[in-house]
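Q: Here's a chain of 233 amino acids. Please give me its 3D structure as tokens.
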Amino acid sequence: MAKAELRAQAVALREAGCSVPDIASRLGVARSTAFTWVRHVPLSDTDERVARRREHSKRMTDAQWSRHRLERDERHREVVGTAAVQVGRLTERELRLVGAVLYWSEGAKHKPWRPTDWQVTFTNSDPVLVELFLRFVESTGRSRHDLRYRLSIHESADVPAVQAWWAEKLRLVEGAVGSVTLKRHTPSTGRHNQGVEYRGCLVVTVPRGRELYWHIEGLLEGLARSGRPEAAG
């Protein structure tokens, strides 16, 4: 093909939105040659063309990684399922130990400047962890229906629906989650905990929980001792 024809094709491809490397590849010429032929032609990217390119790139990426994602998701389900089966049914002792560690990680702690305050208050947004904490409290002889529940949530949420959702999840009587603390909603916020799946945090308080707090402290102390080497005689 004559050089003039190649150059004309290069210009046409450039005007169609092709990059210099793409033009060089299609016409079988060096990139430097392709650039020399089309450098006077500005690449005008309209919004539609940009959108087409992005969509094409997304399709190519999805096709490339779809098999990997399927294999990853299958492996994820397999590992989670195997680990869940290994747990079995917790004994009361195991539940006490798990509950103590859970509370010490997520619950309110005694403050030296409030020497008479030993309140047991657990706050979390995950119903699985809240349920586990309630089971722990029940293992000490208390009923979940005797605890106090407060919802902490942004004012933009459907508060009555969320209150009912928590009560159903935790097998509580209607109206058990009655107290609410509303947080100011900022429309321009970058937080992701929004929409119908956003259900705030549940704050669970154990009335007259001083001795339960001490019990938790003791369990943690026992766990810490269990990992220490025996002192030499």
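Q: Can you summarize the key feature?
A: Residues 3-38 form one domain.
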